[in-house]
Amino acid sequence: MKSLLALSLSAAFALPAQAQLRLPQLPGVSRLPGLVDRAVPPLPELLSASTQGLDSRLARLRELLGRHPDLIEADPRGEPIRRRELVLLAPSEAALAAAAALGLAPLREEAWPELALRAVVLRVPPGLDTAEALDKLRAAQPGLQADFNHLYARSGEVAALAGPAAAPRRGALRVGLIDGGVDRRHAALRNAGGASFGCGGSAVPSEHGTAVASLLVGSDRGFAGAAVKAELFAADVYCDRPDGGSAEEVVRALAWLARERVAVINVSLVGPSNRLLEQGVAALVGRGHLLVAAVGNDGPAAPPLYPASYAGVVGVTGVTPSRRVLPEAAQGPQVMWSAPGSDMAVARSGGGYAIARGTSFAAPLVAGLLAAELREPDVAAAAAAVERLASGAVDLGASGRDPVYGRGLVAEDLRVLPERLQARQAR
After folding, report:
1. pLDDT tens, 23-77?
2. Can 80-150 and 153-425 be said to share one CATH topology?
3. Domain range 80-150, CATH class
4. Are 91 and 153 in contact (CB under 8 A)?
5. What angle do CA 167, 376, 191 make, to 5 degrees?
6. Which pairs from 24-33 meet CB under 8 Å and 24+ separation?
């Protein structure tokens, strides 16, 4: 029997993947303090920050599924997947034969030698339910590594705010980003250097990717990211496609960053556990990379989200200016660090700035600090970099590591409030 979560996704929705970026107006902020003296454009479709969480994510998923039922469907738990697609990891000839006997046809095959992974994507024929096909395939081949092609969503939101820009600066460090596209023409990012991946070489800027990138490497008059001297290696796994952000695309991006030997990678995306993604993450971590991920905004009582909850991943939660955890932030053993995640000034695709809220925007502050500590993938050096970060952490909540704040608050001095940005730009 399908879960209530799955049933709730069967309603009509409307929203492309790119629109998952829209955020609620921050509580108590009808006019933003600084940069411009005008009200934030109303966002009536969005929930308030005090009520966002699992219900908010489900609402976005309903909209996405309702608009693109030809491309997206829900798995039995209600998580979005690519319609009629299954992913087999390193399938044997017997497994492929079993798939063929069920009418499952190969769509594509790809190998990622950097991660020691190979996968075959199968098409489920009409008349056979995708979940039923997966059950039958697993029954026919016990132990087979097969899963849905899950889709992963951004873990935070951005609200519009205008502002001037100035010349940034760049250096030799490197940091990776897996997200939506980045607007490299923005003044805070145009000199960041590095490389881009995905979308067939086309640039498809997004609000979320640009915002997270600015917190990683952005540099502008009155604005600075966590690693302003770093080159940005950014992989776009959405490309403005409604069914973008699949497990397959995230693993493809991980393989590219492994090939480029980018030691620290930020992933501000969330979704369910997936066998392909799990193995890709494990391979990357096992080679000495640090994967920094947002823990998500489904609320403190929600099930864990991934990739932040995989072993070896640096899970990051967000806190308010008063050092209180975001009420919508996930909690649990996956939380390793806390960082500012509310009232964040970020670059906006197309120019200007915005304010942002969510664990998406806490993670890049931690990733930027770790990038300065780890120049090359190395298991021992990665562990040492994490311990060095601990030396400057502020212990919050229960003494020691706890499921709310992790090992403590870091990167607090990197947080740029809109009013601080205004004051700097006035100089």
Report:
1. 222 222 222 222 222 222 222 222 233 334 555 676 777 788 889 999 999 999 9
2. no
3. alpha beta
4. no
5. 10
6. 24/48, 24/49, 24/52, 24/56, 24/157, 24/159, 24/357, 25/49, 25/159, 26/159, 26/342, 26/343, 26/355, 26/357, 29/355, 32/161, 32/355, 32/418, 33/417, 33/418, 33/419, 33/422
In sequence order, which ranges of 145-221 are alpha helices (DSSP H)? Answer: 207-217
384 in helix, strand or coil?
helix
Give the span between the Cα atoms of 372 and 391, in whole angstroms. 15
- Whether 100 and 94 have beta carbons less than 8 Å apart is answered as no
Distance CA 382, CA 289 (A): 7
48, exposed or middle or buried, with CB in 10 Å at 0-12, 13-18, 19+? exposed
pTM: 0.83
Q: Domain 153-425 classified CATH 1.20.120.1560?
A: no
Q: How far out from the chain centre does Cα 125 lie? A: 31
Residue 282 has phi, psi (to 5 degrees) of -60, -40
